[in-house]
Design brief:
single chain, mainly beta, ten-stranded antiparallel sheet, carbohydrate binding, about 0% helix, 22 strands, GH-type_carb-bd, globular, five-stranded antiparallel sheet
């Protein structure tokens, strides 16, 4: 068995080839969800989309391709505990609070990972994250990833089996480029509404519903966008015009925030959902990614 087979789960359709890292094998940090950590997406054996957060080993927080995060700004139970006590990070495990400082998603925390059961067939994999009670917080999470034709679907189901309500947020950090082409004038990011950013990075030109890049960025860029609340079905699409290839993400949930992050080699549209689950209740949502040529 190859090293890739030891560390990854492969899904195939007639057009897509997907690799998903086994929980803890490629990424074992305290920021991202360990389940559904997608490191490779190839369309028609020709177009690749997943890139690392940083091209310099050891820099960044270890993101790669499609990796989601819970609680970037609302850590569950963090303010209730003392240093050296634990708090839950959904999809990851029980994290240890090191000191009296505020939670910061980019910091590295000691992780006691949640137990995960995995079932798979040719085009679908299911991650069942078992609940572990932590100060009254406990969530059973099921994440189902499937491929069909040129579409990748991620379904989330969270059941609150604890005694306290779960209030946090989730988004997917989409570390994308097309065939490793640098971010620059060949890319355009489109939304179904005028973007209306709070601030526009110098490297961007924004007109109506489109974001373009004036040149290859020399450093990280970030902006939040407005206008999405008027949209019934939210989506964004990233096009690389020189190779006439694109990605479209449909968000089948109520949007709470939209942001765009990127740097020299990657752009990441980020669509947020508020997670609010009373004890005994369940919350479900779906993300669909379409990879295409035009």
């Amino acid at each position: 068995m190859s090293n890739t087979e030891n560390t990854h789960i492969n899904l195939e359709s007639n057009r897509l080839s997907i690799q998903i890292a086994h929980p803890g094998s490629v990424y074992n940090g305290s920021r991202f969800d360990w389940t559904g950590f997608i490191t490779k997406i190839v369309l028609d054996n020709k177009y690749s989309f997943c890139v690392p957060e940083s091209e310099i080993p050891g820099q960044g927080s270890g993101g790669f391709g499609l990796c989601n995060e819970f609680g970037i700004s609302t850590p569950i139970g963090y303010d209730e505990i003392k240093p050296q006590e634990k708090f839950p990070k959904l999809g990851t495990g029980l994290l240890t609070r090191p000191d009296e400082s505020d939670y910061f998603f980019f910091d590295k925390y000691e992780v006691d990972p949640f137990p995960v059961r995995i079932s798979k067939d040719f085009d679908t994999v299911v991650f069942n994250v078992e609940p572990v009670d932590c100060n009254g917080y406990a969530v059973k999470m099921t994440k189902t990833i499937s491929v069909k034709d040129n579409v990748l679907t991620i379904d989330y189901r969270l059941e609150n089996v604890g005694s306290k309500p779960i209030k946090t947020e989730e988004y997917c950090h989409n570390f994308f480029s097309v065939n490793n082409n640098r971010i620059g004038s060949g890319y355009v990011l489109k939304f179904p509404y005028d973007v209306n950013p709070k601030e526009t990075p110098d490297v961007m030109t924004i007109k109506g519903n489109e974001i373009r890049w004036n040149s290859v960025p020399k450093e990280d860029f970030y902006c939040q966008t407005e206008g999405f609340k008027a949209v019934q079905q939210h989506y964004w699409e990233l096009l690389y015009e020189p190779e006439r290839t694109g990605i479209r993400e449909y968000s089948e949930f109520e949007i709470s925030k939209v942001a765009v992050w990127g740097t020299t080699h990657v752009v990441s549209p980020e669509v947020f959902i508020n997670v609010d689950i009373a004890p005994g209740a369940t919350q479900e949502w779906r993300r669909k990614y379409e990879f295409f040529t035009f």
